[in-house]
Design brief:
This protein has two domains: about 170 residues, Rossmann fold, CATH 3.40.50; about 110 residues, Nucleic acid-binding proteins (OB fold (Dihydrolipoamide Acetyltransferase, E2P), Beta Barrel), CATH 2.40.50.140. The protein is about 20% helix and about 30% strand. Strands 6-7-8-3-9-10 form a six-stranded mixed sheet, sandwiched between helices. Strand 12 and strand 13 form a beta hairpin. Helix 4 crosses helix 5. The radius of gyration is 25 Å and the shape is elongated. The structure holds adenosine-5'-triphosphate (ATP). Adenosine-5'-triphosphate binds next to helix 2. One of its GO terms (molecular function) is ABC-type ferric iron transporter activity. One of its GO terms (cellular component) is ATP-binding cassette (ABC) transporter complex.
Length: about 375
């Protein structure tokens, strides 16, 4: 873990009360980020971030490239200092009016490429993080290295190899073992799976997630992959343009995104113009129930493609344009009727994409009856 001797700015050392509000501390918060900002030159990269992470919890910070994810992680690690705001661990300030350097924060860090030392063996890489006061002598070190390799499901026989003699997934597990050797309370993972191919990526993610969960380590994963964020974490924080657009559990952020951009970032979304009356949105797909309507009248309604099903008994129809076959499911493009029967309903003629498991059912030009399952999410029109 390299430290870059960050110099806290005057604002970070002496934040004004205006920018460092007291946010109620909850007993099980391990990490609290309060009103944190960070500028690089004239660019404000973080614009007032507030985020709390529960002890032993797993948070994924997800967002498009350049949204400030890595910068936030580096601030938590102590590689950089915030310009304003503060960061607390266990309710104690580590950045803000005080400064605790990276090596005293008890935080592990695994980078995208693992950053193993190429000239050291696997065993020496893992041993690098050990507290030599605690593990004195070759035997004690060897036993602990074997234990750590076992923890990440690697045979101790690998200890003698050099990093380049291992697969990408094995190298990432070694990087985790090295970071775990320091016995960190918090583990920061900066896109550690992104260089791995699809199959290895899922297996490595599962293996690393299991190790951290079993050890009760509070974990923050940075990723730009929404599926990875949803499957890995119990809390997802969506970043956009230096701000947190939404924080919630994976189910909530996926099914009830806060705005259209978040909806589209987290997965495929069908978005239609609609007329909202009470808690029913009327659109080309019929009357769709909406939870907590944000407005009345003209809105946009969002559905996930898997909520739109083919159902023989429905009055809503569409025409198949084409489809893509993916094996277990197909993606079917459908054109909705030009003018909905009810004149109050905006839209018509929209092209939507749904998912269906049976490709044999779809033919171009075929008429399909469609049914919506569950609730939609309405977004006000600006
Ligand atoms: N040390 C630095 N000096 C100047 N600008 C920086 C520095 N670090 C980051 N930035 C800028 O801050 C912005 C946010 O970068 P950051 O790496 O935090 O984004 P990110 O969301 O992690 O992106 P990616 O997914 O591409 O890694 C970018 O515009 C980047 O160019």
């Amino acid at each position: 873990m390299t430290e870059q001797n960050p110099t806290p700015t005057a604002a970070a050392r002496f934040p004004s009360p205006r920018v460092a509000p007291q946010i109620a501390q909850t007993a099980d918060h391990h990490l609290d980020i309060e009103e944190v900002t960070k500028d690089f030159g004239r660019q404000q990269v973080l614009k007032g971030i507030n985020l709390s992470v529960a002890r032993g919890g797993t948070t994924a910070i997800v967002g498009p490239s350049g949204s400030g994810k890595t910068t936030l992680l580096r601030l938590i690690a102590g590689f950089e200092a915030p310009d304003t705001g503060r960061i607390l661990m266990d309710g104690k300030e580590v950045a803000g009016s005080t400064w605790v350097p990276a090596h005293r924060r008890n935080i592990g860090y695994v980078a995208q490429d693992g950053a193993l030392f190429p000239h050291l063996s696997v065993g020496q890489n893992v041993a690098f993080g050990l507290d030599r006061e605690k593990f004195r002598g070759r035997k004690a070190v060897q036993e602990r290295v074997d234990e750590l390799l076992d923890m990440v499901a690697l045979d101790p026989a690998y200890a003698k190899r050099r990093p380049h003699q291992l697969s990408g997934g094995q190298q990432q597990r070694i990087a985790l073992a090295r970071a775990m050797a320091c016995e960190p309370e918090v583990m920061l993972l900066d896109e550690p799976f992104s260089a791995l191919d699809a199959g290895l990526r899922v297996a490595t993610r599962r293996a690393i997630g299991r190790v951290l969960h079993q050890a009760g380590v509070t974990t923050i994963l940075v990723t730009h992959d929404q599926a990875e964020a949803l499957s890995f974490a119990d809390q997802v924080a969506v970043m956009r343009g230096g701000r947190l657009a939404q924080i919630g559990n994976p189910f909530v952020v996926y099914t009830r995104p806060a705005d259209r951009a978040t909806a589209e970032f987290l997965g495929d979304a069908v978005i239609l113009d609609a007329w909202l009356e009470g808690s029913l949105a009327m659109c080309s797909l019929g009357a769709i129930p909406v939870r907590r309507p944000p407005a009345q009248g003209r809105v946009q309604i969002m559905l996930r493609p898997e909520q739109i099903r083919i159902a023989a008994d429905s009055r809503i129809h569409g025409t198949v344009l084409d489809w893509d076959y993916f094996g277990p499911e197909s993606s079917v493009r459908i054109k909705l009727p030009e003018r909905p029967a009810d004149p109050r309903i905006p839209g018509g003629g929209e092209i939507i994409t749904i998912r269906h498991w049976n490709a044999a059912m779809a033919r171009a030009g075929m008429d399909l009856a469609l049914k919506v399952i569950g609730e939609g999410v309405a977004f006000p029109i600006d």
